[in-house]
Amino acid sequence: MQKNYQQKTLGILGGGQLGRMLIQSAINYNIDIHILDPDVNAPCKSICQKFTQGSLTDFDTVYNFGLSCDVITIEIENVNTEALEALAKEGKEVFPQPHIIKLIQDKRTQKEF
Predict the structure, then answer these.
(1) What is the rounded distance in angstroms from the CA atom of residue 4 to the CA atom of residue 14?
(2) For 73-104, how does the pLDDT look when each residue is reduced to its tens digit (9 = 90+)?
(3) Of 21, 41, 52, 84, which residue is least crowded by CB atoms under 10 Å?
């Protein structure tokens, strides 16, 4: 069954060049894009519907940001996975799943694959 993401809010943790490309791809799908990034001048700031300046590794910042989003994804792997796990348990869609992000964060485990 295909999911319909129109009229949804996509939260992206990280507002760099990869995030900008993601937004440019999503613009035609009627998706509101919210960005969380520590840099007040992040490349995504000028093209997203909502920009929040804040830490990607702080539990409260990531958690509170995610509460206003229907779907949450990452642009960079250095994020607070505990906050993403809490959001997923509350029914938010998180991609990649927090346990996969933890795997990506651990370079030693990554090399075992």
Answers:
(1) 24
(2) 999 989 999 999 999 999 999 998 887 788 77
(3) 41
In angstroms, rounded to a whole number, what is the distance separating the alpha carbons of residues 106 and 104?
6
Distance CA(88)–CA(72), nearest Å, equals 9
Annotate the chain with DSSP letters as a single string. -PPP-TT-EEEEE--SHHHHHHHHHHGGGT-EEEEEES-TT-TTTTTSSEEEE--SS-HHHHHHHHHT-SEEEESSS-S-HHHHHHHHHTT-EEES-HHHHHHHH-HHHHHT-
Instruction: Return the structure tokens found at 107.
Output: 């370079």
Nearest to 57 by CA among 20, 14, 106: 14
For the 9-111 domain, the top CATH level (class) is alpha beta
pTM score: 0.87
The CA angle 67-48-80, to the nearest 5 degrees, is 40
